[in-house]
Design brief:
Layout lengths: L3 E2 L1 H8 L3 H9 L6 E2 L6 E4 H15 L4 H7 L5 H42 L4 E4 L4 E4 L5 H10 L6 H4 L1 E6 L1 H6 L7 E6 L1 H5 L3 H4 L9 E9 L7 H12 L4 E13 L4 E10 L3
Antiparallel strand pairs: 1-3, 2-3, 4-8, 5-7, 6-7, 6-9, 8-10, 9-10
Length: 269
């Protein structure tokens, strides 16, 4: 049996680069001998066994600084504690990935909703989610972000930017330049707010609504889909009671448009 391996042979055996082995040596994880005739590195059987553990721990994403102690000075209990700590880190990563997958599914569904309902009209019950609105000033968007942001950005999963267009703006201007800026939360998120703050949120009246999806650049120009929606309602013999509620779905920065699903409150038939 061969008891000495060159750095090239060790690298090939474990499918790592010679630079990686040199890095492990420099970091104090691995040692090598020197051939007395040519000065080349060589590794013993014991070095090979140590390298097996190093690569195993690296595959488990244990930090190099921890592995150095694990293969030099630590006993069983110490090594176990390092592994327990890394197990906790893995659990945190799994939870973060699950949140990321949930957000991806939500965003994908919102873009699909845009494709399916853009410029198409239907009569639906009023949505049950609750909203809170500020004024139409740009600074209010910053106020919303400061108030509801969290360090881990989980607020991005739950907050939905929402617009409120008063009845007179809806009927006379049919644009979004004076829409009030707000937010809406699902019931679970809303229930975690203080009771006093929950009372600041309200829902549309339980009436029929026109539903569609449209894109807007928030300018003072008439929104084409909104004009078509009001004409469609007239054909259906339905009257607007107002207001318009819009909830953000997606953005296309190429066109400078934000897309919203909207509900327009109608008179009872």
């Amino acid at each position: 049996m061969k008891y000495k391996w060159t750095i090239g042979e060790m690298a090939k055996l474990f499918d790592v680069s010679t630079d990686t082995l040199r890095y492990y040596e420099k970091a104090g994880l691995l040692s090598s001998g020197r051939h007395r005739d040519n000065g080349y590195r060589y590794y013993s059987y014991d070095d090979l066994v140590v390298l097996l553990d190093i690569l195993l721990f690296r595959n488990l994403e244990v930090a190099v600084k921890d592995i150095r102690s694990m293969v030099t000075t630590m006993d069983l209990g110490d090594i176990k504690q390092i592994l327990i700590q890394n197990e906790r880190l893995v659990e945190e990563k799994i939870e973060a990935l699950i949140r990321q997958r949930t957000l991806l599914a939500q965003m994908t569904a919102q873009y699909e909703l845009c494709e399916q309902h853009l410029g198409k009209f239907s009569i639906v019950p009023a949505p049950t989610f609750k909203c809170k609105f500020w004024s139409a000033q740009e600074e209010d968007l910053l106020t919303i972000i400061r108030q509801y942001k969290k360090p881990d950005r989980t607020w991005l999963n739950t907050i939905r930017y929402t617009l409120l267009l008063p009845l007179d703006e809806l009927l006379n201007n049919r644009s979004f330049d004076l829409a009030q800026i707000g937010i809406s939360f699902d019931e679970d998120t809303l229930s975690r707010l203080d009771v006093s703050e929950q009372q600041e949120f309200s829902a549309l009246p339980a009436k029929d609504c026109l539903y569609t999806v449209l894109g807007t650049d928030y300018s003072s120009q008439e929104n084409a889909v909104l004009v078509e929606a009001l004409a469609w309602l007239k054909e259906q013999g339905r009257q607007v009671e107002g207001p318009l509620l819009g909830r953000y779905l997606a953005s296309v920065h190429k066109d400078g448009l934000d897309y919203y699903e909207i509900w327009i409150v109608l008179h009872s038939t």
